[in-house]
Every structure is written in structure tokens, then in C-alpha cells.
Fold D-hydantoinase/dihydropyrimidinase.
Amino acid sequence: MILVRGGTVVTAEQRYRADILCGDDGQIAAIGPQLEIPGGCTVVDAGGMLVMPGGIDPHTHMEMPFMGTTASEDFFTGTAAGLAGGTTSIIDFVIPDRDQPLHDAYLDWRFRAGKACADYGFHVAVTRWDERVSRDMALLVEKCGVNSFKHFMAYKNALMIDDPVFLHSMQRAAELGALCTVHAENGEAVAFLQENLLAQGVSGPQAHPLSRPAALEGEATRRAITLAGLAHVPLYVVHVSTREATEAIAAARLAGMEIYGEVLPQHLVFDAGVYEGSDWLAAARHVMSPPFREKAHQEALWGGLVSGQLQTTATDHCCFCRGQKERGIGDFTRIPNGVPGIEDRMSVLWHFGVASGRLSEAQFVAMTSTNAARIFNLYPLKGAIAVGSDADLVVWDPCATRRISAATHHQNVDYNLYEGMELTGVAMKTISRGKLVWDDTKLDVLRGAGRYVGRPAFRRKG
Ligand code: URP
Ligand code: ZN
Ligand code: ZN
Ligand code: ZN
């Protein structure tokens, strides 16, 4: 048992002084002022600290096979890095091979994730349409705890689907009480621009943002929302990076649609300038999709978060080391797309959001944990501080600072996007289902201690 003593509890709704007793079953057993210390209980001092629900990162790609290589971060190292930054759960993506049945792919991912040291769940990607896919979607929702399906409108000749496939999948998800998620960029237009740029001899990483203009994200987001309206299915747009997409989501919500939007802290911090300059590797290390944008888009993303039109923050944590990025020397379309971020998400959002005065503490909890738990039907098991909820907690020092470096991070990747930044707001201790797994600078994690968390289907309307 662990007693978290003397802290200020902050949730998405409340702020109060209380102790929290975490039971041996991994759940919160009691909350109250000055709780008695049961025999054999470890006391964790949270004096002067905030105690918040552990972070939920609803968008990661651990050990993902992608663009001819495999993401360097595995489920063990990735969840360990998350714990070091206060994130206690992830939702990763099952990506079926070309003709692989969805349920087989799900079993592959369950096997891979068996080494995780924090809790995890899965979205499953739909990359084609046939009867088997339709049947497997039902199996996944009804028997396997999957309530969200992923769709890529980009990555032509790989993961991309067309509108009819998207509609079939949306219709099926609606029948099953599942949610659709989408990577919204017009992949046909991206492929066209990539070809043009290469034909003109523009082959370095600076071509990456040129091939993926903001308008193509706006168009795809509007189209995805239109299709979701036809299929009457809730839609969650991952990694929203533009004003156009933010406005499309806000307009749909005002029209009464159930549409959600996710923001990556990376898009809040870095702009298109990262692709300039002559350092090939520095630019390639920022190659992700959607790319980093002009500064004006960042203001729209902040506005979307502050107003609640965009609800969650995730990292899209997808790591490639130098040798992997270098696959794209001479052809930017071969640079594996993806950047790291899981360890630093909470500090970055605190520093640039709360410490800068844009966000309240409660909004921070909502955006790093509670909203994702609600949207993906994990609440109040996760995302809450309540008796019976999982004892996933972060003891947070709002004033402490930390300098970020690849030399000291726990992520299994050879660079850190935030290298050298000094951030205010630090996860001092992390408790994962009742175990103290991160204490100041010390990780104490067990390979395989993470648990698969199934997520029930949503109640169907009408
Ligand atoms: O560049 C990215 N984002 N790589 C991971 C796959 C995806 O699109 O989310
Ligand atoms: Zn199953
Ligand atoms: Zn994506
Ligand atoms: Zn992703």
C-alpha cells in the first residue's frame, strides 16, 4: 500500500488538500484529509506538490513497422519513458500488414505489448474493406475491448484508404458503437506534390512541408467530417496542426456533431523553420506528418485547446534513429515519418500552457488525461482521482525546472526534439496502479507489469 501524503489534489474539476491511499489491488482505496497510515504502508511525501491523475497518451507508435523500418522505441522502453514524465497509460495503434486480418494483427500487437511496464490499449487501423474486415471489427469491439478504429487519408500505396473504404468502416463502427479516428491529409494531393518536387530536383527534407501544405489537412478534415455526418459516427481527428482543421472541427461541433480534435505539443512548440538550414539530419529529425507549420497555426491550436474545441494532447511518439532517418538521403519521401515526445509531453504542456498563463491547472489535467479517458471510454477507471479508480497518479512540482537532453532521457532514440530547453513543471513521482515507479530521478519498473486495458463500446444513440 502507498499513502500519498500532504499534497494538493488537482483533477479536471476540483482542487483540494487530501491524502490518497492506494490499495494493494492497484486502485484508490481512500481519499481524505490526514488519513491514518495503515501498517506496512509506504508513505510518499507530496508536501508542496500537486497530485494529478496520471497522463494518458492516446496516440503512440511503439515498435511500429513503417516506411521500411521499425520504430526504435519498444513497448517496454516507451512506457518506461512515459512513466518518467508522468504518463501512466497509452493507446497505441494496431496496423495490419497488407492482407492481414485485423484480429490477427491485434493479437500480434498484444504479444508485442506484453513487455510494457505501464497500462495500454489499442486503436485498430482499417486499411482496406472486405467481409472479413467487417467481421473482425465486430469481434474486436465485442470480445477484445477495442472501441476505436483508425483511418489514414494519407500515405498513398501504404496505409491510405479512399472514401468508399472510409465510409464502409464508419458505417460498421456506427453499428458497433465504436469511434472512428483519422489522420486527415489529402494523400493523393500529397503524392502528386511529392512527385513534382522530386522531378524538379528538390529532394531534401525542406521539401517535406512543401509537399504537405496546410490546405490539404483542411480539405481532408472537412471531408472526414462530412463522411462522419453521413455515417452518423463520432470522429476523433488525430494530430490537428492547422487553423483550417481547427475551424472545421469547431464548426462541426457547433452544428451538433460529435467531433474531437487532438493536438501534439510538438506542433505547439516547433514551426516550419525547423526544415530550413543546411543541416540535413536536423531537418530530417523533424520530418513527421503533418509537418511543423507556420507560427499562425500554433495560435489557432492554442485557441482550440483553451476553448475546448480541441480536447486532448498526445505525442504520436514514433521514434527513428539517425541511421533510420538516413534512409531518406537523396529522396525526402523515404525519410521515415515520426518524432519522439512521450517523456516530455506533460512538462512541455505545463511550461508553455500553465506556467505561461494560457491554461488552468484543471484544463491541464483535462487535456493530458481526463478528456482522453472520457472520449475513449476509460473514465473513471483512468483519468480520475476517485475511490475505485486505478491508482495512476503523478506527484507534480509546478515550480521545479528540468533541462531536457537526449543524454538523460529514457526514450530509446538518439535525439530529443526539445534538446537544451529548460522547462518548468516536473513529474517528481509517478504511481502506476499503486506502485511507485518513478521517484525523483529513479525509474523502478518491471518489464510486463503493464496491463491491457479493454475499452467497452459506446452506448448507441436512438
Ligand atoms: O509522422 C508521423 N506522424 N508518423 C507516425 C504515423 C502517423 O501518421 O501518425
Ligand atoms: Zn480477440
Ligand atoms: Zn498520422
Ligand atoms: Zn500517429
Summary: Residues 103, 143-144 surround zinc ion (ligand 2) (CB under 6 Å). The chain has two domains: 2-52+383-397+422-443, 54-375. The radius of gyration is 21 Å. The mean pLDDT is 98.
